[in-house]
Batch of 3 targets.
Target 1
Amino acid sequence: MFFINNNTGFISGKCTAGADYEGIVARTTNGGINWNTSFASGTRELYGIQLINDSIGFAVGYYITYSNSARVIVKTTDRGISWSPSISYWNNSDEFFDVHFPSIQTGYVVGLNFFNVKTTNNGDTWSIRSPIVAQLNTVYFINNTTGFVGGYIGNNTGEIFKTTNGGESWNNPFIIDSSSINRIKFVNPNIGYAVTYYKNGLGSILKTTNAGINWIIQKVTSGFLEDVYFINELTGYACSGHGEIWKTTDGGGSIGIRKIETDIPSSFSLYQNYPNPFNPETDIKFEIPKSVYVKLNIYDINGRTLECLVNEEMNPGIYKVNWNASNQPSGVYFYRIETGDFKDTKRMILIK
């Protein structure tokens, strides 16, 4: 599903008629009250869709006949009324799963068997980029150069890869055990969400607050999750393969923060993390005696900000927040708390 604005949106999928299938796009111009359908000839099923502007858009999937099959990209230039092939090639039984255009000229598509392709001329031509050893289910770019893909590499392991050079190379995959990454979406350059098939039919919602360096599980759901979308930094939705829709109005809640005591402390305090040294997780405890805006950041030895663990208004109490450094090398790190009345910094050691 993709919406241009509050009124105009699109859904891609497949239509069945007897034993035949055909890729279909449903379009609404009145906020989903009514839907008009169109078919993409030469396709069997469409999985991902995006409209770049009011007129131009792309959908991806695959087609199959008795003699061959292929991945397929289709394009519309008339607001989704009609769709025609932008490209269909690389013959085999695989599919394209997702499409994302960070700008009108530059777009990316991913799919089975490690495929990721790119266009820089609004879909007139597409080129194969660096292979990634994963089934790729999702792609999302913050801008023309920085983006993410997610998928499944086998052995009950999901991975999220990041590029900073427009897909020429993909570095430092973040590994998610017992998961398959199904969709990634970013609210801004730092805050992003991913939804997964977690394990045993469950799903999970992951969040990053540091541009994909770390991803933390926010919620485990009763059904595996297919998609996620945020209207703004606070309000978002996730949908499951079991027909459930999950909603948040607070950005999914703070990552890893828990109130451990109900007593109101008499002063601000920041405690030494425990355990220390640690590998790869540690807890940081702090106390606040009044309602105040709290920021708690992690820094490397050079003073570079790695992650923001807390960045919100908080009520009086004693709290503990977890930091997972599985994506960081061994070394010395610092954590610093800042409020309107209190600042403190402490040192910790990661040993792997």
Note: The chain has two domains: 2-248, 257-350.
Target 2
Amino acid sequence: MFQSLELKSGGDVKFGGNQKGKIIGSGTIGNGNLPSISNVLLVEGLDHNLLSISQLSDNGYDITFNQKSCRAVSQKDGSILFTGKRKNNIYKINLSDLKTQNVKCLLSAHDEQWVWHRRLGHVSMRKISKLNKLNLVRGLPSLKFNSEVLCEACQKGKFSKPSFKSKNVVSSSRPLELLHIDLFGPVKTASIRGKKYGLVIVDDYSRWTWVKFLKHKDESHSVFFDFCNQIQNEKEFRIIKVRSDHGGEFENQFFEKYFKENGISHDFSCPRTPQQNGVVERKNRTL
């Protein structure tokens, strides 16, 4: 663990139980990216690495202890030299873990371009270079654009979902066996009577579509119930099932009571999955 070591003889170290250890050298410890500690004594026969709290304090570090851990913090810049965990009555420091922790802390300092990339909402490096060139952002440092480096978050954000396979088989066997319903609006331009919403109803078997215009969303249940009574008398078929999303205009006590009284099953598509009710969703886009 020594970066530099000078062997010397003479002198000893006295421990708490009046035992003595012979000093055979002194130097600086640290490995790679580890923070270095100078004037460390090498004691013959000592099986554990011991840190002198007073020596660390003299070198400008604040040492804090609590019930579970300890740490040494630099008084100059507030950087953490090491942290230790308490095991039984001894505070132990794993110096091999310090290398990994230190590398993580230094990443943002060396990759300042990625800090500004995140600050500016993951804008492209070419755009950051243009902002810097035109001096449009106060405090923006001079950054070099590297087109070969990729941002992991940007890559994941540009992933596209695989498309759902189209269904070539009609699930229903007769008209009004399954109805798809959805609501769109409010639209920018209202009708002459001030209606801004539209209730779209699609028959799964024939793909026949009805559109009922509404002034307010809370009219959807009354308009749909009138439609059900009318269309069942007209076609002499009973409605078996209705499919909608989890919108509040469909998932309420009015729909639940009407469907229960008339023996109609109410199916819901999964949240944030319009593909499950794609028959009526595609109709909404064309209207």
Note: The two ends are 73 Å apart (CA to CA).
Target 3
Amino acid sequence: MERDDLALQNIQARTRSPSIWLLANIERKLLLATSNRSEATLGYSTMDGDTSGGLSPLAGVDKSFLMRWLKWLETEGPIGASPIPALATANSLTPGPELRPLSANQSGEDDLMPFTISSALQRIALVERKDPRAAYATLVSQFVPQFESQQLRSWVCRFYRLWSANQWKRERLAPSFHLDDFNIDPKTWCRFPILSGGFEQELIALQNEEQL
């Protein structure tokens, strides 16, 4: 049912986990979790589902970088090595969790926001420590007219709300590598209250400005 959409997606992700753990145990291997920094920032992952694992090697890099890197591997490759044309199949797919029926054409960007916007807000909000209004002004200066200002405002509100609501997930993520100049791992870098009002008052004010 439509009202249970998220719950049904989550249970599907969780039912995969026992089998994956079983295979890892049988082979005496370390299970790697799959979430990247963009997903961890916004809580776009299922606890005890795709977050299962003992190490999260991608959690220190954002989705936009991963997509550019895979395209580079496909077409160029590192010095002294050949490109990997077989990656064209993976690179042609629309990134998404594939938890709704295939007919839904589920997309991570449709569920959240464009990956370029998410990556920009990760830096603006978490490194530069700007509040929602300042983050919105920065996005407008960078992305208008590519995106309408009203849409940017909506994505800013969604980003800060999801960031604030999902610290509890980040506290339980498997350890990750520190691969660039910032990280959202609360155990080593980025602390944030698990239960808080977050930026709700600032977001209400920002939304009211939209209605003027």
Note: The first helix runs from residue 5 to 27.
